[in-house]
């Protein structure tokens, strides 16, 4: 499994909203785009959460393969990150079928664990920040951009990893609109992530003369 393989798979992980709606469009097409609110209610389909969990499953399998090839435990730790994403996606789907206080609490707990796990991995492993004794506070010795851009990006990345919180604060907006807004925020977060992920990969390759 090469860098390009898991980089593309990571991009797909940010398309959960788009993948989630595939089943809706398939249903709409089947009903000739009529009576969609009745015939194609997204909360009534198991296909949506199952499809949305495919990208993290692919990344989990890639992590297992990399562990088998290298025997480095870090790949299993990374795989657990995607397992937390799968759990969050599935609990979100189950909550739509069986709403209630218990499912709400479970959803918040699982989503919080997943967001904390993924945001920590983003900064420490994917971006290579928090290097001990770095001459750039909380960053790493080798940086390409201005220091303030790392602090800004790191802060916004953590906040945007918790974009799902918008569904819990009682906004007087249609749920579909909130979902679309969360998807846009995730698209921005991923674009931002790409810059620092590629930068860190380039620095590591140069440092190891690859």
TrEMBL record:
A GO BP entry: phosphate ion transport
KW Membrane (keyword) present: yes
Cellular component terms per the entry's GO annotation: Golgi apparatus; plasma membrane
Record's bilayer topology term: Multi-pass membrane protein
Subcellular location: Membrane
Keywords: Membrane, Transmembrane, Transmembrane helix
Record-linked Pfam families: EXS
Domain EXS: 39-210
Name recorded for this polypeptide: EXS domain-containing protein
Source organism of the structure: Phycomyces blakesleeanus (strain ATCC 8743b / DSM 1359 / FGSC 10004 / NBRC 33097 / NRRL 1555)
């Amino acid at each position: 499994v090469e860098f390009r393989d898991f980089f593309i798979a990571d991009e797909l992980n940010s398309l959960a909203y788009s993948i989630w709606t595939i089943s809706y469009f398939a249903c709409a097409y089947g009903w000739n785009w009529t009576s969609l609110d009745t015939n194609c209610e997204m909360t009534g389909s198991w296909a949506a959460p199952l499809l949305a969990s495919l990208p993290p499953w692919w990344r989990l399998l890639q992590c297992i393969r990399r562990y088998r090839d290298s025997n480095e435990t870090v790949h299993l730790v990374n795989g657990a990150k995607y397992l937390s994403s799968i759990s969050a996606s599935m609990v979100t789907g189950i909550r739509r079928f069986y709403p209630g206080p218990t499912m709400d609490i479970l959803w918040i707990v699982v989503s919080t664990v997943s967001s904390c796990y993924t945001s920590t991995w983003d900064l420490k492993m994917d971006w290579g920040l928090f290097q001990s004794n770095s001459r750039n506070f909380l960053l790493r010795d080798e940086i390409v951009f201005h220091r303030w851009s790392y602090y800004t990006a790191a802060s916004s990345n953590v906040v945007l990893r918790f974009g799902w919180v918008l569904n819990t604060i009682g906004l007087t907006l249609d749920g579909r609109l909130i979902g679309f807004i969360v998807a846009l925020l995730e698209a921005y977060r991923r674009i931002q992530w790409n810059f620092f992920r590629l930068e860190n990969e380039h620095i590591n390759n140069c440092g190891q003369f690859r």
